[in-house]
Amino acid sequence: MAFSIKELEQLSGIKAHTIRIWEHRYHFLKPSRTDTNIRSYSVEELKTLLTVALLNKYGIKISRIDEMQPEQWHHALLQQVEAQDEYLVNQLVGHMVDMDHVAFEEVLNLYIHQKGLEETVVSLIFGFLQKVGILWQTNHINAAQEHIAAHIIRQKIISAIDNLPAVFRIQPLFLLFLPEDEHHELGLLYVYYLLKKRGLPVLYLGASAPLDDVAYVMRIKQPSYLYLHLASFPPGGQFEKYIHRLSTIEPHIQILISGSVVSGYKKVVPHNVTLLHSLEEAIDLIKSV
Length: 289
Description:
Blueprint: E1 2-3, H1 5-12, H2 16-25, E2 32-33, E3 39-42, H3 43-57, H4 62-67, H5 70-79, H6 84-98, H7 101-137, H8 143-162, E4 174-179, H9 186-197, E5 202-209, H10 211-221, E6 225-229, H11 239-249, E7 254-258, H12 260-263, E8 273-276, H13 279-288
Parallel strand pairs: 4-5, 4-6, 6-7, 7-8
Antiparallel strand pairs: 1-3, 2-3
Helix pairs in contact: 3-5, 3-6, 6-7, 7-8, 8-9
């Protein structure tokens, strides 16, 4: 697996021009060259640059970093409280690329034990998924690598949900699901956790729920809210048409939609549909119920 200098720029936040300067002056990056003299960077060099960029961001001069051994880099980052979360995100990315599921899970387990699931999701998992998205866009991970990591995260969220006290309230009932052929479930599971933690009843249909099945449950259970968290929308699907159809099944039921699909959506939505453009909006709404 090889990366171009532009891809390193996207993943590290370090400008390509700066990366070239560092290569000429220091020793920590040694890209190979193609037959046409184009730089090519390995996974190990990506990991190195992520670490170097983080050390430099938190005040260590590049000349000093170049003199240090990798073990000293690790120690220096552990001394920087502000840098630790970003460092752990970079570790998660490296473990995912290496398909080292044991190390990946160890990072999550320790952080959850120390700070709980909510802080883990906000401080680690969101940043990790953002970098995974860049790797997808540049075709540098395959589905197997992502699935291994996503499965571990999914297990952690489900375990945290199971460990919460049972909810005995009947209303306001939240019905959670993803549209048919949509399988990116982590965000929706996290919403389930937030709702249950706040003592709100949830009926969870999960991923890839056919609209006819959703309509059946709506008519029988009469939830107060539908909740969808959409990291993507199924290929060929029309989001606008889907939400309009969903809104007409039981027009008195409120429909809440969050996720990256709605973050830039500007069109008018039906009266019973609310688009939540950020995690903060979603949490504020949950607290207000």
